[in-house]
Amino acid sequence: MGEPSIQIVFKQAGITAIKRGERGAVVLILKDTMPATYSNPIKMETIDAMIGYQKPPKQVIAYIEKADAADYSEAQSYLETIKWDYVVVPGIGITVDGKPDTEANTTSRATDFATWIKQLRSTKDIKVKAVLPHCPADNEGVINFCTDDIKTANKTYTAAEYCSRIAGMLAGTPLTISATFAPLAEVIDVPHLKKEERDAAVDAGKLILFNDGKKVKIDRAVNSFVTTIENKGDDFKKIKIVDIMDLIHDDIKTTAEDSYIGKYPNDYD
């Protein structure tokens, strides 16, 4: 008789998991005037998020909100209907007149956005992540990127401006390795931190960059989750582990929907 089909599907999904986990999809939410020749969503070609790590992200999509939009609700509504892995909002740290905003205002907007990510993961069963600046969300779905004054040959970036690069790197990191100590070749320097300062940042759920004396690298690849509870321990702090768990979750959900629900009786009334 052979094995039930659902087990076969699970085995097939497992065989391809590493391949499917090599690259993820990144979404950029932008506020701007939509070019007349485009419509949402826009597939991007050459931007920072495309650099990736060992490989570029599988796909980079931009959703353009109106320049005077009060929030990101239009983009958020659309994103609940498509498949993606990481989202960033490059302009979340910019004032309406295009200047860098205060860290407090940036954190406030990022916190509001993080609330949506938490809702997607907890109440809508959509396992996605956001890279946000200075956002201590205490959630495995939010990467709290906290390095400012990131110096490259052409520009010095704030944390908010550099989030797209971080999202691309995470999406381009295969599930077989971690982004911990991943080098950023374009970065010349970042604020120098002593080891105890770096350790404190990591323990606080901050993803940071550091200069090891020769190159600039990502420190331990952690998300913002810090408050462990029963059945949700330290493993949930690691970006790689959460990526793997999300892939497993999606495999099980897809297999159930495609190969079980509606195809077998669930009662005998």
Automatic annotation (TrEMBL):
Transmembrane segments: none annotated. Belongs to the myoviridae tail sheath protein family. Residues 66-224 form the Tail sheath protein subtilisin-like domain. It comes from the Bacteria. Gene3D superfamilies: 3.30.1370.220, 3.40.50.11790. This is Phage tail sheath protein. It holds the Pfam family Phage_sheath_1. InterPro entries: Phage_sheath_subtilisin (IPR035089).
